[in-house]
Structures are given as C-alpha cells and as structure tokens.
Amino acid sequence: MSRGLTSLFAQRYVDDWNAWTLTPPAEKPTQLGIILRRWQACRPNRMRRTMAEDQHPAPYLENLIDQASQHLATLETFEIMEQSSFSIENIEALGNLWNIFENLSYEGRARGGITGSVGISKAVLLLTDGAVGPAFDSEVRRHLEIGAIETSGQWISALKIVSQDIREFERNNGATIRNVVPDRYAALNIGRIYDMALGPRG
Prior knowledge:
The protein is mainly α. The chain has helices at 11-21, 28-38, 61-74, 88-101, 117-127, 138-144, 152-173, 190-198; strands at 46-47, 105-107. The chain has one domain. The chain is 49% helix and 2% strand. A two-stranded antiparallel ribbon has the order 1-2.
C-alpha cells in the first residue's frame, strides 16, 4: 500500500457505503442484496434474495444474516492491523462466516453455484462495518501478489498479509493509516479504508 492510493476512492463505492451505514437493522437484508448485486459480488452465479422477494427456496438473506450474527458479534473488537486479532476464537468465527456466505449464491456455472471469495469477503466487509476487510477482488489480490482464494484458510491467510501490509505502511510513513486519508474517512474501520484504497478507482 502507498500513501497516494488513499486519495482516489471511487465515489460510487463511497455512496454505497454511506447508504449501508444509514440503513436501519430491519432493512439490512434488503440493502445487503442491493449493494452486493451492484458490486457484482456473486457474478456469474445468482445471488440469494430476501424472503419478501420470494425468488428461490430458503435460505434467504435474512437467514444468512441470522446464522452469521453470533460470529459477527465475536468479531466486534476485531482490528485488522492488530496481530492479536487473529486469535483462535476470531479465526474460528471467520471460518464460520466463510461457510455461511458460501451460500450467498444458490445456482450458477461457477464453483457449482456457491459463492467465491469475492462475494464472501464483500459480504463480511459490509456486515462487520468495515472491520474485516478488504474485499478480495482481483485488484487487491494483484497488489498483495496472491493468487485465487478458494478456502477459508486461504482467506484468513490473506487477511494476515493485509495486517502485515498495514503495519509496514505505518512504519514506512511514520503515521497511522487514518492520519493519511482525507478527514472525512478517518473514522472508518481500517479494513474499509484499505478496501477503498486498493479497490475500484475514482
């Protein structure tokens, strides 16, 4: 990661994030679907919808969020740049989230219809309000010089690489990552800041 990357955030992704953070809890499943479809999280597979949309058998997005709730609660104090955040308990929670959100899609030609790392990591990024990030799209993986992520273990290893990259960035710049982003983004969780810096450009 370099200092210059923090100044080119894509506005459409900022707008989506703002919409997410302002969404009341009862409307989170609907908003999760809207944003993840806009982000093409499950492409080329078909992503699950809410119960009200009634486009496929259960589980619905509400069910997945309910299944994930205890594991998301475990990660409430997760800080991507802290090595101590990769505790046995947190790693177990991350693995469980991977297993749950593999079911974010339900049919399609990729991976036998289940969701891959891009969709899973985007869903977890949103549902942890940016604590567990980034989303591992091709741009982020290229920056980190890592290949495809196909298992929860590989995802967790990639998150550890991100953690190390952030610590190196802060050492090299003599400042925290929050100190080098525009003030309006400084309060965001670090996983989200990292995602915005390395993801789609403005």
